[in-house]
Design the sequence.
């Protein structure tokens, strides 16, 4: 479990990135921090592995105040997948994946065997092991980034807009892969994005942030869509534009679901009575 | 007898007696290389760790740039004379001058090598749990190695071209031929000595250029 208690981050120039943030993230839960730039979402995420130190407040992981832990050891115990992969350009794919296990003292041979398994887990052709990052496509680089984040089998995985720099088709492919992986691995994931659709797709819970790290609303995607807390949230999720208000039109004998502008969103399933979701 | 001093200098070089004995070209070349190596190595021991620290922390960069710039402006002949007056004839005065001559290039090479690493890559390395020393040795140095060697190359070429000043205060090296020639108005010998220094400088420059190419990160060399 990760807990934020009244966390504040103020930079020396007087800029307040995060005013007063509190949140509890349960183990095995996937939480998405979503907001536009200046919302402090990346700052908040980077406080979890002490890449950013809070000005005041406390962050704890499984009861331990992280301010009392060695930052290097802490970072080695938390997976981190970043925007634009952040791979080491002078090391091969395999050496990039084994970075953290090698730092933690795992034998090179053992780390390599595990890295090869991980390449399959994240859907990478094992033949790419000896390549350098610049020889891979953007999507492949992100897969290597995910494999590197998972290499030391951390409980927590931090993901900083990991799919922001790839094209839409590859992005949705990577999003589906992550859903599949999370289904198998049940990590505690903190995911940062500015894309509300990505947030709703990947988050068990979604945290919508206003500038200064102020929580506009926290909830499951269903809760937020069903009951936006205020106009900011309604506007952010697109409810005010009618993008989330769907209705059914009958076209050629089939039920087509369209939004308020008449854009088709999908087809109503033939035998799909409304299900009561446990909340 | 041909009066062209350039042709005469070639004759001087071609004489077989020049190529053996304690005043022969091989010994003088070795002395010259020895002074160069000593000057560059002592300067490297001082300037490279300093440059790496400045590049990694980003602190005192202004001071380092200003110091390097000021040191570049010092006239080496003046320094050799000054140090020789202070410390007497011998190797200390010219070596000290060579060290001062070599420091700016080495310092600039070291900090620009470290600075050249993509900040996002360094951030990623830190976020994976590398210590600052590991970031320096496993990320910044391998990526910046060509620039570091570039600094060594610049310093070496400057020192090897200037090392003839050692003979000005009574030492050996290829400068012997030049200053002896100057004293006895033997211009062909002066030219021959200069040609030897030039050839040596070009050879070292080429060798270090090759080293610079070879130390590039593999990923950058295989497109």
Sequence:
């Amino acid at each position: 479990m990760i807990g934020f208690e009244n966390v504040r981050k103020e930079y020396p120039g007087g800029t307040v990135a995060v005013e007063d943030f509190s949140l509890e993230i349960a183990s095995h839960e996937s939480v998405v921090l979503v907001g536009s730039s200046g919302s402090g979402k990346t700052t908040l995420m980077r406080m979890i592995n002490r890449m950013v130190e809070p000005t005041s407040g406390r962050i704890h992981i499984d009861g331990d105040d992280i301010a009392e832990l060695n930052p290097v050891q802490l970072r080695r115990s938390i997976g981190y997948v970043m925007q634009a992969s952040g791979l080491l350009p002078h090391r091969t794919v395999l050496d990039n994946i084994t970075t953290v296990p090698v730092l933690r003292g795992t034998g090179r041979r053992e780390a390599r065997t595990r890295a090869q398994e991980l390449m399959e887990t994240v859907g990478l052709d094992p033949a790419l092991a000896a390549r350098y990052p610049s020889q891979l496509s953007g999507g492949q680089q992100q897969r290597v980034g995910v494999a590197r984040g998972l290499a030391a089998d951390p409980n927590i995985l931090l993901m900083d807009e990991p799919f922001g720099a790839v094209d839409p088709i590859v992005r949705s492919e990577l999003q589906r892969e992550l859903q599949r992986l999370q289904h198998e691995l049940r990590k505690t994931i903190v995911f940062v994005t500015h894309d509300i659709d990505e947030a709703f797709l990947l988050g068990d819970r979604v945290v919508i942030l206003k500038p200064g790290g102020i929580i506009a609303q926290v909830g499951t995607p269903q809760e937020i869509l069903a009951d936006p807390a205020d106009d900011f949230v309604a506007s952010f999720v697109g409810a005010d534009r009618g993008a989330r208000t769907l209705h059914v039109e009958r076209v050629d004998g089939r039920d087509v679901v369209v939004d308020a502008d008449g854009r088709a969103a999908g087809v109503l399933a033939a035998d799909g009575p409304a299900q009561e979701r446990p909340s | 007898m041909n009066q062209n001093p350039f042709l005469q200098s070639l004759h001087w070089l071609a004489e077989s007696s020049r190529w053996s004995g304690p005043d022969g070209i091989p010994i003088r070349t070795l002395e010259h290389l020895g002074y160069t190596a000593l000057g560059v190595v002592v300067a490297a021991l001082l300037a490279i760790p300093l440059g790496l620290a400045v590049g990694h922390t980003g602190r005192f960069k202004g001071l380092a740039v200003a110091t390097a710039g000021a040191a570049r402006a010092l006239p080496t002949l003046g320094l050799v004379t000054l140090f020789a007056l202070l410390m007497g004839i011998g190797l200390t005065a010219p070596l000290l001058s060579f060290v001062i001559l070599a420091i700016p290039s080495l310092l600039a090479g070291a900090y620009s090598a470290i600075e050249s690493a993509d900040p996002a890559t360094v951030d990623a390395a830190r976020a994976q749990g590398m210590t600052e020393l590991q970031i320096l040795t496993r990320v910044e140095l391998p990526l910046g190695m060509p620039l570091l060697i570039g600094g060594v190359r610049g310093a070496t070429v400057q020192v090897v071209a200037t090392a003839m000043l050692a003979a000005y205060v009574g030492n050996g090296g290829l400068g012997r031929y030049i200053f002896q020639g100057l004293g006895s108005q033997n211009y062909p010998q002066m030219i021959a000595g200069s040609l030897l220094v030039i050839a040596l400088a070009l050879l070292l420059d080429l060798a270090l250029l090759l080293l610079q190419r070879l130390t590039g990160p593999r990923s950058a060399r295989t497109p």
Chain A touches chain B through 27 residues (CB under 8 Å). The longest helix of chain A spans residues 168-185.
